[in-house]
């Protein structure tokens, strides 16, 4: 492509044109700490700088020189696969919200928090010594298949255009959203070392791991919260095979790993898991 550019046109223009010509989906690794939006802004800034844009402002929404978005928000405390759409690929991000996702979650019995994870304040402490591995495995059956789930208060869900988590931090009173149908394809207990336990989860869109762990604690006559959460798969993208780490957030790496919209759709349909009947 660079060979077709006139010598009078700076190479910078060529790089920006290549960047703006990208259309499709790719996956990046989100580390623990920043929000999904923060990570996307770092990615956009890195790419715009590489293309020679001076003082890029990735948070600027109007007249953006790079159209990019992410699908399926990961909590700040969580890490793992975050799917990014660039160009026309942003139109495919809704597929990422409904496709299959996989998580590894480490929960802790005996303590409940207001955020349902380790970032929140402890709201309740209860004994957990009575809980056995068999008890957990038995209770998990009730959370597999098509179930109803109440989303956590601290979430990306919105009320009057503002995220519930933001409203709560501002001191506003927020009512819980009604229970809604979600699907859990597979749910297994990987490790049990009280008070810690590790779950392997495959679920559909709209599912909250934090709510699952909170509900599990209550079902076992105790309480629990998420201590660590890693998303290992989102749609056709896996953490091991597809997620680009920060040092790979370059035009070259993204161009090589980019799935066009049609490829993304085809692979998503092909890899969508069959529902498990329990």
From TrEMBL:
Residue span(s) of domain tRNA pseudouridylate synthase B C-terminal: 210-266
Domain Pseudouridine synthase II N-terminal: 61-209
Keyword RNA-binding in record: no
GO molecular function: RNA binding; tRNA pseudouridine(55) synthase activity
Keywords in alphabetical order: Acetylation, Cytoplasm, Isomerase, mRNA processing, Nucleus, tRNA processing
Domain of life: Eukaryota
Compartment(s) of residence: Cytoplasm, Cytosol; Nucleus
EC number(s) given by UniProt: 5.4.99.25
Cited InterPro entries: PsdUridine_synth_cat_dom_sf, PsdUridine_synth_N, tRNA_psdUridine_synth_TruB, TruB_C
Pfam hit, one: TruB_N
Gene Ontology biological process terms in this record: mRNA processing; mRNA pseudouridine synthesis; tRNA modification
Catalytic activity: uridine(55) in tRNA = pseudouridine(55) in tRNA; a uridine in mRNA = a pseudouridine in mRNA; a uridine in tRNA = a pseudouridine in tRNA; uridine in 5S rRNA = pseudouridine in 5S rRNA
Record's keyword annotation contains Ligase: no
Primary localization class, coarse: cytoplasm
Gene Ontology CC entries for this record: cytosol; nucleus
Top-level enzyme category: isomerase
Family to which the UniProt record says this protein belongs: Belongs to the pseudouridine synthase TruB family.
NCBIfam families: TruB (TIGR00431)
Function: Pseudouridine synthase that catalyzes pseudouridylation of mRNAs and tRNAs. Mediates pseudouridylation of mRNAs with the consensus sequence 5'-GUUCNANNC-3', harboring a stem-loop structure. Constitutes the major pseudouridine synthase acting on mRNAs. Also catalyzes pseudouridylation of some tRNAs, including synthesis of pseudouridine(55) from uracil-55, in the psi GC loop of a subset of tRNAs. Promotes the processing of pri-let-7 microRNAs (pri-miRNAs) independently of its RNA pseudouridylate synthase activity.
Name this polypeptide is given: Pseudouridylate synthase TRUB1
Organism whose genome encodes this protein: Oreochromis aureus
Gene: TRUB1
